[in-house]
Amino acid sequence: IFKFLGAISVDLGKDRIKPYLPTILTPLYRELNSTYAEQDSTLKNLSQEIIELLKKLVGLEDFSLAFSAVQKQANQKRAMRKKQRALQTVANPDIAARRKLKRHKTKAETRKRKIASLRPTYKAKRPRSHSLKDLAMVE
Predict the structure, then answer these.
(1) pLDDT band at 75 (very low <50, low <70, confident <90, very high)
(2) Are the beta carbons of 139 and 98 closer than 8 angstroms?
(3) Residue 130 has what pLDDT?
(4) Start and end of every U3 small nucleolar RNA-associated protein 20 C-terminal domain (predicted)?
(5) CB proximity list for 127: less than 8 A, separation 6 or greater
(6) Is residue 132 part of a domain?
(7) Domain total in the chain
(8) CB of 54 within 8 A of CB of 9?
(9) CB 9, CB 53: distance < 8 Å
(10) What's the rounded Cα separation, in Å, for the pair 47 and 55?
């Protein structure tokens, strides 16, 4: 898709690409700023190359305006999601508690996996049975 976006932008030319610039830059910006663990470096390099191509094609000033608009929109979305998550913890504490328990569980599993990879002879302790605690949890 990134190659397609680059080809379309070159095909349209300087004047006809300007209205579509924010639409084209949105996925490129998202790929550049992604923090996923399993990130593909070829995609990141390709998006960087297409951004450089767009800079040359459109000009630095127009590109900067469009790129800053895309950045601003992404930051607003991120802030909105964060605000909604905070509001959900107040409005639905049971859902928030479940999410927190799940996060702690995955964190413990990750820690065990990391220890197992670093020290293969080490065995992680088995979790203790908390029968009363298990009964009190809402699922």
Answers:
(1) very high
(2) yes
(3) 65
(4) 1-116
(5) none
(6) no
(7) 1
(8) yes
(9) yes
(10) 12
Residue 50 in any domain: the answer is: yes
Residue 63 has which token pair?
């590109």
Say if 71 falls within a structural domain. yes
Mark residue 67 as left, alpha or beta (left: phi above 0; alpha: psi -120 to 50; beta: remaining).
alpha
Do 139 and 99 meet the contact criterion of CB atoms below 8 Å apart? no
In the predicted model, what is the mean pLDDT of residues 83-106? Answer: 91
Q: Could you tell me the residue range of the domain that residue 63 belongs to?
A: 1-120
Tokens (6 digits) for 132: 């009363």
Structure tokens that stand for 42 in this block? 């070829």
Candidates 61, 74, 81; CA nearest to 25 is 74
String of b and e for 121-137 (b: at least 16 CB within 10 Å)? eeeeeeeeeeeeeeeee
Q: How far apart (Å, rounded) are the C-alpha atoms in residues 41 and 44?
A: 5
Tokens (6 digits) for 1: 């898709």
In-domain check, residue 133: no
